[in-house]
Design a protein that fits this description.
Largest sheet: 6 strands, parallel
Order of helices and strands: EHEHEHEHEHEEEEEHHHHHHHHHH
Distance between the termini: 34 Å
Number of strands: 10
Radius of gyration: 20 Å
Shape: globular
Helix content: 40-55%
Number of helices: 15
Length: 367
């Protein structure tokens, strides 16, 4: 059966690749979207130097897990002055890139309420107007720089929305490992485990294909080798480069498959228990691996290639890997009762991402 792999993002990778930014924007006016600490880290000054008069202004108050309560003000202000820029440059982790993806999608009236109504409707739509996006990750994990998806949260209503349109694919991604040298240990681990989740979720996925498998398996090998070493040597440039490349491979893998059950569970863990995304989507990986292995012969082959061992040993190895990084792997470790966990798995398996999981029946049976 013919299978397809598609990714339209022009990717620039390697130390010093940030210097490519002026050539990529090609004279266009730019608005930068970034996180509050970017200025103190010297990143805003760097972009100001590279872009010069092309830089219109900087939005630097992005918050983790972009919430509708905070996005509305930023979005409305951005579209009130819609002619200030042609290009939006997102500099940061997943939250900065997700925020930028929301900003570039223009509605007829330029109102965030209009965008939110479209997201709540859940049906595909064509935006009235859109800006071009360039993504520059400062973490090795999100993969958002090579995917069209953004997650928008509504903590007040305990909901999350997924935004994905043709225009939310970045035109280009600049993956410069030198931008990741200042990441603290906790974020290095959390984002690295997000990347591992992306890779594994793309394998135990109904949308998997041979090309996504190549990227995913390579990412799994690299992350499980590199991340524990990097956690002990945060200023090691070679390890930072290895993790940045592994995270990008994982992003390329799930750019074609989307995520699956572990991510579906993670949304509830973040909304209800405040668990950081990278931990929320990785602590269940041994559990989900056990549910996936044995469901489909072709997927079993891919998982065997990823771990170079059998099912039982792979689960043990994955659990030990997480424990080595001080990540607990039981629901009870996070204050979730057995009954609550069963209900969470059942609910997650019926969600959009849960339905991508090859072992959906096993998940329902377990719950």
């Amino acid at each position: 059966m013919a299978q397809q792999f598609f990714n339209p993002v022009a990717t620039h990778f390697g130390p010093g690749s940030l210097e490519e930014l002026p050539r990529i924007v090609n004279g266009a006016k730019v608005v930068v979207v970034t996180f509050p600490e970017a200025r103190s880290l010297g990143l805003v000054t760097k972009l100001e130097s590279l872009l010069g008069d092309q830089l219109a202004y900087v939005i630097e108050n992005v918050q983790p897990n972009p919430d509708v309560s905070h996005l509305a003000e930023i979005y409305n202000r951005f579209w009130r002055d819609e002619h200030a820029c042609d290009v939006v440059v997102a500099l940061g982790g997943g939250s900065a890139i997700d925020t930028a993806k929301a900003l570039i999608v223009g509605t007829e009236g330029g109102s965030f309420d209009e965008l939110l109504a479209l997201l709540a409707d859940g049906k595909p739509f064509t935006p009235n107007k859109a800006k071009t996006l360039i993504a520059i990750p400062t973490t090795a994990g999100t993969g958002s720089e090579v995917t069209p998806w953004a997650t928008i949260w509504d903590s007040a209503k305990q909901k999350k929305y997924s935004l994905h349109l043709d225009c939310t694919w970045p035109k280009a991604a600049i993956v410069d490992p030198e931008l990741m040298l200042t990441l603290p240990k906790s974020i290095t681990i959390s984002t690295g485990l997000d990347a591992l989740s992306h890779a594994l979720e793309s394998i135990w996925n109904v949308n998997a294909n041979p090309v996504s498998d190549v990227f995913a398996i390579g990412a799994i090998h690299d992350i499980m080798t590199c991340l524990p070493l990097l956690a002990c040597e945060l200023d090691n440039k070679a390890l930072r480069s290895s993790m940045a490349l592994a995270a990008m491979k994982a992003g390329l893998a799930f750019s074609n498959t989307k995520t699956a059950l572990a991510h579906s569970i993670s949304y509830e863990m973040t909304l209800r228990y405040g668990l950081p995304h990278g931990i929320a989507c990785s602590f269940t990986l041994p559990l989900v691996l056990g549910m996936a292995w044995g469901e489909h012969p072709e997927r079993d082959i891919a998982l065997q290639r990823a771990f170079n061992t059998d099912r039982k040993t792979a689960i043990e190895r994955l659990r030990a890997f997480l424990h080595q990084l001080e990540v607990r792997t039981e629901f009870s470790d996070y204050g979730v009762s057995a009954q609550e966990a069963q209900e969470m798995i059942r609910h997650a398996s019926q969600g959009a991402r849960g339905k991508n999981f090859i072992g959906t029946k096993a998940a329902v049976a377990l719950s």
